[in-house]
Design goal:
heterodimer; A: 256 residues; alpha+beta; Phosphorylase Kinase, domain 1; seven-stranded antiparallel β-sheet; 20% strand; B: 162 residues; mainly alpha; disordered C terminus
């Protein structure tokens, strides 16, 4: 009887233990386990593992919640975010362009732009892990932030509106760049994914968009009218490209 | 209190359990939960419906990934003693499972805990980690094999010491 059934796979054994197996297949798996003691032993060990985990950690869920985790306490710390007011107006733009955005400027990556990007990635790594002080000026003061950074950097710094990519501006800060000051803007999604936009004077007049990946982070970078741009994020290339493209299009439109 | 807040509040004990197993250190674990809650409250208006539970686990999982990334360039310190005054008769077993967990790579540990401890479906875990279900299943299989080997490797070794 067992011979006629389709052999049980490793995945099915896990699914069986986790209650993810279709009901009609359960009988087959049980018959299989009766005939294959090694698999039965593994399944048993996984069940024992689950019991050990619950025995060790369920008590944490039964502890009284510490005061510092009470919502009312956390809410008293005022954090206001301006969001959504401008979103609708900007969705149109990302839907537009695209053609040619990868095909501008020089063919090769100048070495200076490469190290420039590494500086930006270092800044990205340093600040994205910050929960309490990721920025100097919060995104709620967008106008002030743009004004201040423009004044200090010497080119028109606009914080792109990335609501269409599910991101809101956390804020920004001023950083030392390779040739003078650099502006550094941070964005965040509802689930805590963070992206940063770094801009500084570049040695190169214009360079086409490039991609670089380093450990868990990656960046898209390009230069335009003497200003270099680096958009950094996690290692999801598609997602990064989506964000970088939105930034590119807005910078392009505003005239850098 | 809004329905949103009530749902978030109801999840705090389970989030603490997950964070404790994920981060091992009790203070770091509660920091993770606190940051998760702050972020959730702050993003209330960004939350466009859906499963609040999965969303909170997603935030916590991402925060832990960021935290570990910041540690990645430094030498890793492990606690000398697993300070669980709460461990009872199964104390040794609890220490063993905690130690075995700590040897897993981040993604595998998260999958194992979300499925086994938090009772999430493969589909939900795939969404939380942003990967296909097949990846979740292979991470789970590797995590279980690794923990099993780790638990079996330790016990006979202890027995040999006379």
């Amino acid at each position: 009887m067992i011979d006629r059934t389709i052999p049980v796979t490793e995945d099915e054994l896990h699914a069986y233990v986790d209650g993810e197996l279709p009901t009609e297949r359960r009988g087959d798996v049980e018959a299989w386990l009766a005939a294959h003691p090694e698999d039965a032993e593994r399944v048993q060990s996984w069940r024992a593992m689950a019991e050990s985990l619950h025995a060790r950690y369920d008590q944490v869920a039964n502890e009284p919640v510490p005061q510092r985790l009470e919502l009312e306490r956390l809410e008293r710390e005022p954090r206001r975010w301006i969001y959504g007011s401008i979103a609708a107006a900007l969705i149109a733009f990302v839907a537009g362009g695209g053609v040619g955005w990868f095909a501008r400027g020089e063919a090769n990556t100048p070495a200076t732009l490469q190290s420039f990007t590494e500086d930006a990635l270092d800044a990205h790594r340093l600040y994205v892990v910050e929960v309490r002080h990721p920025v100097e000026v919060p995104g709620s003061e967008r106008a002030h932030l743009q004004q201040w950074l423009t004044k200090r950097c010497g080119w028109d710094v606009r914080a792109p509106e990335l609501a269409s990519a599910g991101l809101k501006l956390v804020g920004g800060r001023l950083l030392p760049g390779p040739k003078g000051p650099a502006s550094f803007l941070m964005y965040e999604s509802a689930s805590g994914e963070r992206f940063t936009v770094y801009t500084a004077k570049a040695a190169t007049e214009a360079a086409q968009m490039r991609y670089i990946a380093l450990d868990h982070d990656s960046a898209m970078f390009w230069a335009d009218r003497g200003v270099g741009y680096v958009v950094s994020g996690g290692n999801d290339r598609e997602r990064l490209a989506q964000v970088a493209r939105a930034v590119y299009e807005q910078v392009e439109k505003s005239g850098g | 209190m809004s329905a949103f807040r009530q749902s978030v509040e109801a999840m705090i004990p389970a989030l603490r359990r997950y964070a404790r197993a994920l981060a091992r250190d009790a203070d770091i674990a509660d920091d993770l939960v606190q940051d998760t809650l702050v972020r959730a409250l702050r993003s209330e208006r960004l939350f466009l419906g859906g499963d609040i539970r999965s969303w909170l686990y997603t935030i916590l999982t991402n925060l832990n990934k960021n935290r570990r990334r910041s540690l990645a360039r430094r030498p890793q310190f492990m606690p000398l003693l697993d300070n669980n005054p709460d461990a009872s008769g199964t104390e040794a077993e609890g220490r063993d499972i905690a130690r075995a967990l700590s040897t897993l790579v981040e993604e595998q540990r998260a999958v194992l805990l979300l499925v086994v401890l938090e009772g999430m479906s493969y589909r939900e875990v795939a969404d939380i980690q942003g990967v296909p279900i097949g990846t979740v299943m292979s991470r789970l299989a590797r995590a279980r094999a690794h923990v099993k080997a780790s638990l079996e490797g330790e016990r006979p070794a202890l027995r040999r010491v006379k």
